[in-house]
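Board notes (copied after class):
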Amino acid sequence: MAALYAILFCIVVLNLTVKQKALSAVTLAVGYFLVILAMPIVFALHRDIKTGEFNRDISRYMQTTGRHQAWQSIVLGIGKYPNSINMRFDDITCYDILRSKYPDAMDPVHNFHGKGYYPGLRGIYFDYITRYPFEYFGNLTKAYAELFYFIPYAASAGNLTWWRYGYLPKKIGVAVDEWDVPLRLSPHGENLLVLKYNYLKLTPVEWVVFISALIVVLLAVRYAVFSKGDASNRHVFLSIIFYIFLLATQRAIIPHHGLALIICFWIFSILSLLYFCFASNEVRSYLYWRVRAFNIDNR
């Protein structure tokens, strides 16, 4: 969805006619519907008809494949930092709070979801942000700031499976605060949920690489927002920055996400560096005049 929104944003800001923008948006929406919804339904239905497993019940083919709605992850994300409702990044804690506030959301004894499970989650979330808005947005600000630690830490943690970019492994010899580790560690082992400066333990080379990449990204932001260069290039840069912002927001709100942000950050920094070195007129003009001045001085 983040990629879809970023493409729509790109369509809006590009120098296109209203008709071109409308056709592009409609084409994107139709393509999304076909690839995400229609094609899986058609393929599953065709398979079951061919194998004789189709029982004329279409309803089960209309169901999505997701395990749960995003509300569960969003509410658990409140528990990343200490908060006034005692939420932790833990299913059982969430179930207990739900059971106390919304009895129809959970089974009275067992941890089974009731019919009011997702309405209860939405109720907890909106009640929290309306009763404690400064605390919520303060914690959200900390989550955004923590991305400065998350990107180099994840890049220095080695070859990880996709889910471990949300639960980064603790480095050897680093003592961490109890709140910074999820309550239920299995199946992720002793992994960090919250990152701090003293957890990083980066080598000088890793610091140099990360800071250099960060400088290039900041230059790309400056180019996209303030430069008077080629408008189409600036708009593409701006759209990619918007995409990174959406991925950063996803990571800030739902702590166990993060792989897409890591990949996008490093690819964007490399592409930006290549653009500024070989395609940007400003850089080429600067290098040209520096070389020319050097040759003149040496004559």
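Comment from the instructor: The longest strand covers residues 168-169. The mean pLDDT is 83.
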